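Late entry, written up from scratch paper. The run itself happened at the end of the previous shift, but nothing got recorded in the book at the time, so transcribing now.
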Amino acid sequence: METVTRLRHAQQRILKIQRRLWLAQIAMWPTLAVAGTVTVAGVVVLLRRRSAGGRHELPESPGAHRVETVAEHNGQVSHDVSPT
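Output as recorded:
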């Protein structure tokens, strides 16, 4: 009888371990799907930021970023950006 009891307990332990492995495998797939989606979204955001549309472009109006030098009263020259 003792041998049968030990076999039954061993079988119950094996089933418990199999059940835990099965649950871990089931939980793994949604986790991988979410991680993949987040990774793809991050790559898309980075590529859009680096695209030419996201860079600063000069305005079409002439002289908009004109730099003028102004001589100050102490003899130093400073650069002044005018908005016109």
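The chain has a mean pLDDT of 79.
(Scratch paper discarded after transcription.)
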